[in-house]
Amino acid sequence: MSYEVKNKKNIATIGLHAGQEETDESGSRAVPIYQTTSYVFKDPKQAADRFALKEEGNIYGRLTNPTTQALEERIAAIEGGTAAYATASGMSAIFYTIINLTQVGDNIVSADNLYGGTFELFENTLKDLGRSVKFVDSQSPEQFEEAIDEHTRAIYVESIGNPKLDIPDFDKISEIAHSHGIPVIADNTVGIGTVRPFDHGVDIISSSATKYIGGHGTTLGGVIIEKGDFPWDNGKFPALVEPDATYNGLSFYKDCGPKAFTTRIRAVLGRDTGAVPSPFGSFLLLQGLETLDLRIRKHGENALAVAKHLEAHPKVAWVTYSGLESSPNHEVASKYAEKGYGGIVSFGLKAGYDGALQFIENVELLSHLANIGDAKSLIIHPASTTHSQLTEEQQAATGVTPDLIRFAVGIEDLEDILADVDQALDKIE
Fold it and tell me: For the whole model, what pTM was predicted?
């Protein structure tokens, strides 16, 4: 017996049921792990039709897997999209998204408040592949419009910048993009469960599933989701519209409709390069989605309390968190953040660079590692780690200062988190 969730924003329910509205023949309540590389066809016609994309169904693990399909359907439902494609990592999701939209000579316009790995991809690897990226101030819609030219194929933003933690004005940015016939891509890694980009004009979400989706630091993964209503036939996106020779002249836009974008990634990029999650990895990410709503609420609750505590501490020089009324991004963030302001707090100490390193050395409960979104609290010094390959100017543009500490606040008891923060600060002279 299946159940349809009436309110599409009820992610607590969607996170438990979407993608498995009915159990398979085994009756398994948990989504089964289909640990297989390939699938038996019932007859030659079915095999031929599936290879030609005339019939949906499983062919080979590089293209589809029932466990992964459940993950894709669930995350698409959570974000409010028509279809999703799961990848082996967040970076492969971003890479596939850009490559699917662009050709040699094209460019995208990107906000400058990026995760260090994304910045490196945009600044170096895409350049080597004949694509370019124009970086603009994440909080200046006017700069986005000024940077668009005839070869621009998308605007790219992070829903909550990592580690700058600002939220873009989606409505203004999407209006600008659509007036030029290009889509808006949002990395919703940090904003998942809090910010709903599709409700504010975004066309594609490309996120890491490693972080808050997984929630426990166990599994690499990424996900691409499409809203499903962008008019790809405006002359700028021939790969999505023109007949594909490898599929007997099929047009993804004309033949796949609201699933055109992710279907091409699956059928072409996934087919040819295969950056897909393992079935067991997809299973673990599904477990994360089951508690996503609970964790996101607790992350946000704890993060706001930590931000207020740090803001009042005499050894703290500054705090960045959009939930603080003192934040210059608070007004914009309040418009788009429906369930809190995220689980990350950035701050600096009056003791500067050396103080930041001392704080990290002093913590006991908090873990020092290069990740965010775990149930456990995590800290890192971006200037010397995640953003260390960037120049000082590039670091400044992304919001990284020499003294910045990125604090991914976990779901531990708040009392214990604050106690560890205080004891670590007390040891700094």
Answer: 0.94
